[in-house]
Amino acid sequence: MVAYDQSTGTLRYSEKPIYTTSNGCPINDPESSQRVGQNGPLLLQDFHLIDLLAHFDRERIPERVVHAKGAGAYGEFEVLDDVSDLTSCDMLNGVGKKTKCVARFSTVGGEKGSPDSARDPRGFSLKFYTEEGNWDWVFNNTPIFFLRDPSKFPIFIHTQKRNPQTNLKDATMFWDYLSTHQESAHQVMQLFSDRGTPYSYRHMNGYSGHTYKLTKPDGTFHYIQIHCKTDQGSKTFTNAEAANMAAENPDWHTQDLFDSIQNGDFPSWTCYLQVLSPEQAEQFRWNIFDLTKVWPQKDVPLRRFGKFTLNRNCENYFAEIEQVAFSPSHMVPGVEPSADPVLQSRLFSYPDTHRHRLGVNYQQIPVNQPLRAFNPYQRDGIMAVNGNYGANPNYPSTYRNMTYKPVKPSQEHERWAGAAVAQQLPVSEEDFVQPGMLWEVLGRQAGQQDNFVGNVAGHLSGAKDGVRRRTYDMFRKIDGELGRRIEVETEKLAPHPQSQAKGSAEPRFKVEASQGMGIQV
Ligand code: NDP
C-alpha cells in the first residue's frame, strides 16, 4: 500500500514486499551481476540482469506527435441544469448526477521535455466513464484553430516543429505558412494574446471548438459547442514571465496542478453549451462547420449545464496519464459528430495514433477501460490482457445470445451538410472579421493590445524579410492600425538586411523573451 505524506511531500509504503525478477523469482542482491570469478565476464544465465537491461531498453513508447508534454488528474462531473430537452446522454441525465472522469492538459508543439509555459495552444481533454461508454472531450484552450481543412494539419504542424535541416525552431517557416494560409489569422490573434501563455492549467478555459450534435431518441437533434470556464479565473503570464518560468521551472504547469490537488485545493470548471437548431444553423451568419470561427455569444448565449472538479492525482504518471487515450470518436448515445471536416478527420486520426503508440488493445489499459464493454468480435492482437473474451464466440453465433440496443441516429440534415461543404471556400474578407472582434476585446483590457503587438513582434522579427512583409499585410486586413504597429515594432527588432545578406555571425534567431523559451510558434 502507498500513501502520500502531505507534511514531507513523499510517498509512504506500509508493506515490505519481497523483491523478485519479473517472473516472480526472489533475488538476493539486485545490484550485483553474476560473473565468473572476481572480475567477470558476465553470465548469460543471469536472467535478473538481462531482464532488467532489456526492459530498461524498451521503457520509452513513441511520444505523441502533438500534445507530447502534459499533466492530468482524476475528477468528477456533476449535472447542474436540466438539458433533457436536448439530449438523452446518460451522463447529462438528471440534475445532480455525477460521473467519474480523467483529464489531461498539454502543450501542442513541444516535445515531452519542453517547457510548460511556452507560447502554444493547450490541449484540454476529458474522458467521462458514463454508464453507456466513455465519452471523451478532446478540446483546446482556444475556441478555434488555424485551419478548416484537415489535409493542412500535418503540414501546419511541421511548421511549428523543427526545421528539417537545422533541427531548430524556425520563425521564418512558421510565418511563411501563416502568411500564405490566412484563414489562420483568428487563431494567430488568440495565440499571440496573453492567453497564449496561460499562468497554469487550472487558470484556462476549454472549448470544444468543433460543432457537435446533441440528439434525442426520436432522431431530433441540435448543433452545439461546449465551453468549460475555469472557476479559478482566467489568468495569464506576460511574454517575459512565461520566458522566465520556462527557465526557472519548465514543469511549472505540471507541478501546479499536482500540488494544488495534493493540497486539497481542487480546481473546477463550469460547463456551458451554445445551442443552435438545424434551422437556426442554416440562417446563421457563420459556417458552423468552420473551425476558424466562433459563435458570437451575443448571438448564441451560453447555457450552463454542469461542472467538473479534479480531486485526485494519479498514482503512476506513465500508466495513467501517458497512456490515457482520448479520441473525439469516443462518443455515447445522445451525442454525434457534425459534418465539420476537421472533426471528421480527428475521429480517425486519434485512435490511429493510439493503436500506433499503445497497441491495438489500448482500450484495455485500465485508465482507458469503459465501465462496461463487450465486443468479443474484436479478438487477439498485442497485449490482449483482459481475458480476450474467453470462450465467447468471435462471430454472431446462434449459440450465444447478445442484445443489440436500438440506437436511432439523428436525422442527417443532408441539405445543410451539402451547403457547408460548398462553403469550404478560399480565404475571404469574412476571415478577418472575427480576428478584428478579438482585437476590440483586447482593447477593452488594459495593456492587452500592447502585449499582443510586442508578442508578435518579438517572434516575427526572427523571420526573413519577405515573410515579415507578407505578415504585416495579413494584420492590416484585420485592422489597419494593428498592421502598422506590428510593422513598426517588428522592424525595430529585426536584423538589418545588410547583415543578413552578408551572412554575418549574428544569430539567425534572436534569443529574447518571446523566443528564448523553446517557443512553439
Ligand atoms: P464578446 O465580445 O461577447 O465577449 C468577449 C469574448 O472574448 C468572451 O468570449 C471571452 O472568452 C473572450 N475574451 C476575453 N478576453 C480575451 C482575451 N484576452 N483573449 C482571448 N479571448 C478573450 O465575444 P464574442 O462572442 O462576440 O466574440 C468576440 C471575440 O472573442 C471572437 O472573435 C473571439 O476571437 C473571442 N472569443 C469568442 C468566444 C466565443 O465562443 N464566442 C470564446 C472565446 C473568445 P471567455 O468568456 O470564454 O473567456
UniProtKB/TrEMBL annotation:
One of its GO terms (cellular component) is peroxisome. Keywords: Alkaloid metabolism, Heme, Hydrogen peroxide, Iron, Metal-binding, Oxidoreductase, Peroxidase. SUPFAM superfamilies: Heme-dependent catalase-like. Heme binds at Y350. The active site is at H67, N140. Its cofactor is heme. It catalyses: 2 H2O2 = O2 + 2 H2O. Pathway: Alkaloid biosynthesis. It comes from the Eukaryota. This is Catalase. It comes from Ramalina farinacea. The lineage of its organism: Eukaryota, Fungi, Dikarya, Ascomycota, Pezizomycotina. The gene is CAT1.
